[in-house]
Amino acid sequence: QEKSCHLSAALLGEDSEISQDQLYELLKYAALGKCHHAAQPSWCRIYHQSHLAGVVVVVLHEMSQLHFYRFYLQFKHLRKVFRHRFTLAPSANFPVSLYGEGTNLKPQNTPQGLTSSSSECIAKSSDLQCHPIIQRYGEKKQGLTSYTLTLEEQKKNDYPIEGSPGCKGYISTECDQQRTDSSPLFGLDCEMCLTAKGNEVTRVSLVDARGQCLLNELVKPESTVVNYRTRFSGITKKMLLPVKTRLSDIQTRLKKMLPHDAVLVGHSLNSDLQALEMIHPSVIDTSLLFARSEGRRFKLKFLAKAVLGKEIQCEQKLGHDPTEDARAALELAQFFIEQGPTKVAELNLEMLLTAEKLAEVSQNKAVLQPQGCGFQEQLNEPPPLSKPCFLDCLQVTGQKPLLLGRQGLDSSGLCQSNLSTSNKQILQKALEDVPLSKFSIIQFSLGPEYLASHLHAGLHEKVRSKLTDMLTIYAGPFEENFCMKSVKKEFGRCGPIQSLTVVTETFQPYVCIQYEVLEAAQLAVESLNGAEVAGSCIKVQRPVTAAMLDCDVLIQELELDVENEGVIYVAGLKKSLTETDLQEEFSQLKDLETLFLPKDLQSGKHRNCCFLKFQKTQSAVDALEAINGWTMKGCELRSRNALAPGHLWRWIWQMNHSNGKQGKHIFYEKTEQLSDSDQDLRKKVKKLDHHIKKLYRSLQNNTLCIVLFPGVNSTHGSQSGLGLMGIKDDKGRSAC
Known about the structure:
736 residues; Nucleotidyltransferase, domain 5; 9-stranded mixed β-sheet; 6-stranded mixed β-sheet; RBD_domain_sf; RNA binding; REXO5 exonuclease
């Protein structure tokens, strides 16, 4: 009997954010398995991987978690089929994050056991004419001014430009463009953390042309930190606690330190200048200087090793050293200027990278000897360079992945690419070609008219506003001198309260309560409407706004969401109870699988509620009946079915805390008719959901299907992505 594949992922809870590396880890194992030395992902488990019929990744271009919850009712198929969901950290270069760094590998021309000896024949002068570096800069050595980015190149690569709409409030270094070939070079690098505002600077380093460190300063972000990104930045909460330096201080110091004709050097320097909110006219970007075909870029770590013979960003260190990175970028630019384009092209960097990746695949400890670089040491074994591309590995095994979409995700020639003009054409092609491929990437898009950054900002505000309204209830009327403490205590039994204020615009006092979780607000409406609180018989209701007219429908659909099956919410717990205490208290409940105790993501303190996940739906129903009215350590418990999975709980918390002061709620709002664009967008989303449904139904059983809302990471802000995944079973649903 054929074994069925299973997918297991412990994603209940606020820690269900998956990094791009973790997603890559999953895709690599699903595509290759143990027979090609791929490891089981660390955050989920695929059972019987060898029996997978295929892997299908559906990418919803430039869509984020915002879209899923803004159009939750329209995504009927997605929310009913996929049992596993996770928040996806946004990436500035999603295609590379998705399947690793591509190469120009052509299987029919490249032997599996490629070593340095077989790469020596590549650097012929006839081939150099076609090299991206020669095509861009010519063969002759030139001064540094020839390698600074033009204004058009800066615009194309998202550099902050004077007068640009996205650069309002940015500070200019006030350096002019009167640079010469003898202008001084300065290396610059920043480390960033993720805050409620987006990417903010936490450390800045500046080195001069001799590599001397002029500035190495920690910076305290203006907004609440959501993720310190310690693994990459090396920054921790403890490090920033005593820091007083702000971004404005750094801006002032940089302006004073840089001479009028300074040329800044960095690797993807646009990100650093955007985070610094500074404009500088003269820049050399080493990620563009060492040009590759199709717009791909080498990583700084690889270039430092291959060109300079230096190890940077070592795994033994906690995070990157910005001074080390700034110095490496500076030395790379100096090497390029001193040696000239021809010498750099003769290094065969592309082939070195390809050889290293293939060496990893075949476990062949090849010796890589760079060409034309006399000062470079011979490497005794392949260094851990850029992240290997598992599409290369699929090529070695004789498979060729399928890529369908409007955007050119693949720049490597490793996929069977087919670019179409509409989602309908993409779907038709997918229905024909996906069954013939073991690994497919299908990309759908809402269209360019819906991808502008200002539309994302508007969408964010609509979702934030609606979530805030759903988390908010009004209770009253109360007597003039009612006891606020009694009200807070009674409503606090439903769950953690974000804010509680008295409404004085009414004849008798009302109370506005905003909760931290949806279940708490719903529990308050269900259990306290018509109850006597603080000596008054009160009415409990949500705000009446146009956006809230479908609130009951939305609550019902959230409750029926496949991810909430067998999950219940319990409130009224003492905050002093630990997870171990609760495991002991709830041990008598049948089929209890997981207990999740939410905590404040800022303080780390536990809330007065928890979520219980049961192996069987009926066991959850029985537990609900048993827990309601149950007394634990002197506290009466209240419970109901879960509404929001862990990743949404985390997202709600971030939205609540990114908004600063809470805005006043309008109790009655004039109903506004949906604009034509809103109505059209809803239709498009519904159609998109239908396309995915049709594609999913056509898949073979035991196919791993992953739907990705990649998220947005731009100068206008960062929006988390969302992933939905499952292995299709014979009932057409995703198997657990």
